[in-house]
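INFO  loader      accepted 1 record
INFO  loader      residues=299
INFO  predictor   begin
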Amino acid sequence: MDLIDLHQNTEWPARLDQVLSSSPVDWAERRASVQSAVPPGLARLQRMSAVPRFDLDAVDPVVYEGILKEALLAAAHGGAVYTELRLPQESVVHPQFMERFEAARASVTETYPDFDAGAILSMNLWDPMLRELCDAFGDAAAAGLSGIEIIYVPYAAEADWARGRVVAEAAGAAGMGVTVPAGAFNASNLASLAEIEQIGRIGHAVGAASDPGIMRLLAERGVTVEVCLTSAVVLGMVPSLEAHPLPRFLDAGIPVVLGTDSPMRMGTDIAGEYAKAASLGLSRADLEAVSSRAKAAAL
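INFO  predictor   done
INFO  writer      dumping tokens
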């Protein structure tokens, strides 16, 4: 069975912290302290993300490529035969950023010849240059960009998706797929996203389990949910692994794939995510179906 990770962040600030900081974060210690001291939800997410910000346009392109290589190498070492790596939007400051990604991917395949990867560009809806970035989608797709991830605010309340729809349509017109992380802490935004034709995948979507109507909508639309089990527990999307709605998603006919989210910060890999899914009662046949779905749902 092929282990496929369709939700992996580059973890740009965290990985640069490991390279550039004189006292890098101990992520096992950070996870333990945050889970014990910070309430679940957005506060915990923000605390887990609280590392020094590094100005990407001041980072040497060789360092940029090296960070991508480290993220891909971690995926391959963790058992993935394929991962979709989410690049920070600031990647566009590096001319030929996709060439850097391809060089990093090729380097990893020298050690793991069966490994492959695709690149997704995270897009911030509040960015003033968003229109210009959308105009470059065609060239980016031609250079090998697989798709985009749309990041929005407010994250845990209903957002205005008028601008997001425009971005999704522009990506679709360029032949790229679209994914959006949503519904991590409640059901906000899930219904709106399910109505946007170009959005084929939603990350987390844990909040859908509280709304039977949204569950039906996701199933009817065939929207794939990217389940990140470790992240859901660490960030408090669910109180425990056993409380995760993954089995309910499958029972409802919602297509599901697995992902690591932020594997370094969360302390996981894709093999661990498949093992956790098995502990929730998914059979070998179930897991093989999840893997097959991931192959079909890759952007």
